[in-house]
User: Fold this.
Amino acid sequence: DVIVRNINTKYQTEFDLIDKREKMELNSLERMTMSDKKRTEKRIALEAKYEAERDKNHKKQVSDLRKAAIFQKALDISIIIANVAKAITAHLKEPWMIAADIAIGAAQAARVAAQPIPQYAKGTDNHKGGAAIVGEEGTELGILPSGKKFLTNNKATLMNLPAKTKIIPHDKLVNMIYNNALIKMSEIGAPQTTDS
Assistant:
């Protein structure tokens, strides 16, 4: 979790710097003397430039998070190997147990190695527990088995989630918020529109 937190902090700092540079350039652009058409063209080009930087930064973040998850898998397998070695040492006087220790360790290592890191851009009703990538397409709603709710980052983030966690994907979350707003508006008698 410390590695993941450090990765996310590093990239959040990068995102903040990109936003700050963009704001400075846009403010500078507004102070320049030029036609409105030229200013609009330059503003659109600047916004596109910084959006491309954010996208590149986001892709590097996702790559680093995946590397961290792979590292965690390797660490988990190393722990299994150490536990098997310890069990073998304990069973040196019972050679038939050594074979069982090795078989159990191999099965555990194979299970860890075979588990892909779940990605929940489409959501899930039943996370199996452990690492998962959330927020790939925007903020998502997480619901823990206890019923406690949380919002994910709006960028792909590796999280360690308990078993039976539900993830509501970004598009469904947006629809839920929109529908809830319509209900609230109808309760107070406000005019409504369903045109988006």
Summary: The chain has four helices and five strands.
